[in-house]
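Field: COMPLEX_INPUT
Field: COMPONENT_COUNT = two
Field: RESIDUE_TOTAL = 629
Field: MODE = joint
Values follow.
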Amino acid sequence: MSVTDLAPPAGGRLPEPESARGPGLRLRAGLRGLAGLLRRRPGLVLSLLWVGVVVVAAVAPSLFAPGDPLAVDTAARLRAPSPDHPFGTDRLGRDLFDETVHGTGRTLPAAVLATVIGLGAGSVLGLLAGFLRGAADLVIMRLVDVLLAVPGLLLALMLVSVLGKGDTVDVAVAIGVAAIASTARVMRAEVLRVSGSGFVEAARTGGARRVRVVLRHVLPNSMGPVWVLTMLLFGEAILGVTTMSFLGFGAQPPTPEWGSLVSSGRDFLGSAWWLSILPGTVVALTVLAANRVSRALDGERTGLR
Amino acid sequence: MARYLLGRVLQGAFVLWAAYTLSFAVLFALPSDPAAIVAGTSNSVTPEQLDALRHELGIDRPLTEQYLTKLGGALHGDLGRSTQSGEAVSSVIGGAVPPTLAVTGAGFVLAVALGTGLAVLATVTGHGRLGRALLSLPPLGVAIPSFVVGLLLLQWFSFTWNLFPAIGEGGWRGIVLPAVTIAVQPAALIAQVLAKSMGDELGKDYVDVARAKGAGPFRVNVRHVLRNAALPALTLTGLLVGGLLTGAIVVEAVFSRQGLGQITQGAVSAEDLPVVQGMVLLGALVFVTVNIGVDLLYQVLDPRLAVERRTGRRSALFAFAGRG
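Field: COMPLEX_OUTPUT
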């Protein structure tokens, strides 16, 4: 995959998500922006590229790893990384690179689902609290207090112990719920700020109904800081999902998943280090890239405009 | 001061009650059958025996009655019995506190030392190459999953160089690697917040005054800037201590150590819901206690707050960590 494949989404989205320019203009501006960006912020460009590669690996793993990730080859057990097996092979001779690439299709959707749940439920709660005020605000924010008081992983473990332990979807829901509190607080603060501004007042005076005021005026103008949170939450969700499956909750072996790959490699730490260190490095790089993009979205001058 | 303290304690008690209610709602009110879990999957259990077990566990009674009975017990420190061992939840958890406290305590000290050292060093070296290189470390520390940190340390220090034992307790040598593992993320957080707040402080007038009076860079950065910058970083403490508790779950799994984390993992695997609830409550209790402590510390460290309170002005710093 080349740099230009990624250019339109990367360059076009960064400055403002809902740009009204035509597709051709946006593409050209994006390309020009990316060239400048590459010179000034190589780390950010690499991060965007890495996120793109990981997303492609999740959607179409056979593009990178055409082989069957579960194909056993007992003659080639515990081989160190080599050109044939870039990540080496595991105790059954399965190619670890294939497993890691195919594992992306488990880890990434779970992290995305968790982010969507955290962001969605958090936004709704924050919107309700900030717009309705009064008793609703009190009840919702006290609930958020409690969600904040219990450490995230513990909250997720509690949910997983009733939801079920053998499935990535359950883990994703649990991690998502643990992320609700921070989104709700950000959203509420923003809704409070927007609700006090002139155009909301004008809409009210103009006779717009409450639902319309919320959906047409308050919500669109409050989403900015929440969108900024997206990549941060996504990075945290990857950490959460892989940690849960490392602990044995979520995808079960032999289903390849990043955290469970690291976990099953533990027993060979002394003899075959690559089994847990290489998938672990992939996790770390992905979270690092997501955090880097998130910082760029968070008001840092990207050089695009 | 006493009134303020009372208010904060009441607030904390409310959060604890809410945490209890929430965990009860999630763990016991959802349609699941604890009796079936206790009985296991064996076919030899008759329906009558199951009913007897349900009666014994009190789950055949109405939900509100269960809730009030359990809440009453919890107020007296009785959180029920572990469905695995039949031991009281409080003693299961209490017995696991010391080993976890040793690791998390060492990790906390290490995190504060590392984080502060990194922030000060990066601020002193300024915008040079070294300063920027130092400031690129915290994002790395936040991004690496702690289980990967632990496995990397094991790989190098236990298997390659044979410096520390790979698993088990083994006295102070056994604590070193787990403590370092648990310290990486909080240290990175401290460094990030402290470096930013030191940068903000550097722009203030008193720094110029100190410089004009002839204070060297070390004195300016450590005696003046660090002391003022430390206050915002203090707010992190509650978050960090909560992070240490969840860090212990991962670290104890990586290093095969006994403790709260191992108990939590085991309880979730075995669906030992009373123990899971006990851990959730412990997490909330620690968070609430630490935050009250931090708030009180603020009063001592920043006399301006006490004045504001007396004059009736509310400061943002007063707001409990959960308030917007």
